Amino acid sequence: MIETLLSEATHWITRGFEVIGVAIIVIGALLAMVRFASGRSGAEDRYACLRSDLGRSVLLGLEFLVAADIIGTVAIEPTLDSVIVLGIIVLIRTFLSFSLEAEIEGRWPWQRAAAATPRGRSPGAEDEGR
């Protein structure tokens, strides 16, 4: 009785995360298109803004879809086959996330620290002439 209730609740929680993920992607895409259509800047700036907005909504939606996959696999049917499928799905979605982030930011996520430091100085380097 309690296992059935728990399984049913987990199923609906998983579906909820999936619906939220898809809704974020769809609403984000619509808002990105509205912002693109109503933009006052040049076409190139608007295009870059559209790509950035759309990429961010897809990234956030993917995060919710990955969470749904994890919840569904671990809580509903934790078999070896389902865990392997989950691993493959997470790898694919992680690759997509990295690729999208690189497209949006123009650099890989691990390059943020290097881009934030002044040219020619290593991160954490203080005044060495003292």
Description of the structure:
By secondary structure, the chain is mainly α. The longest helix is centred in the first third of the chain and has 36 residues, at 2-37. It has one domain (2-116). The protein has helices at 2-37, 43-76, 80-105, 112-116. The chain is elongated, with a radius of gyration of 21 Å. It is built from 4 helices and no strands. The model is unreliable at 126-130 (pLDDT under 50). 78% of the residues lie in helices and 0% in strands.
Between the first and last Cα atoms, what is the distance in angstroms? 73 Å
Provide the low-confidence segments as ranges.
Answer: 126-130
> How many separate domains?
1
Q: What value does the average pLDDT take?
A: 80
Question: Could you give a short description of this structure?
Answer:
By secondary structure, this protein is mainly alpha-helical. Helix content is 78%, strand content 0%. Residues 126-130 have low confidence and may be disordered.
